[in-house]
Amino acid sequence: MTSPVAFLADAPLGTRVVVRTRIPGGYTDALGFLRGRGAASVSVETKRGLVTLAMADVVAAKEVLPAPEPRGSRGGPR
């Protein structure tokens, strides 16, 4: 099994990922597209913007499927 840091180092930029990081009091996830990486951090573009995550805080990371297509409205023609 590949470590989360090794996965992030090898994944192509633009890959849709979820990255779990350690924060005070627990954990948090960043879901989005891998946009940058360095020895100490990775950048993930989420719905709320670009976030930079310290590699030292990463506890899990994996590729995820593309987001589902938006559903049509329920109030369509009758």
Automatic annotation (TrEMBL):
This is Ferrous iron transport protein A. Residues 12-62 form the Histone acetyltransferase Rv0428c-like SH3 domain. It comes from the Bacteria. It holds the Pfam family SH3_Rv0428c. It comes from Cryobacterium flavum. InterPro entries: SH3_Rv0428c (IPR056934).
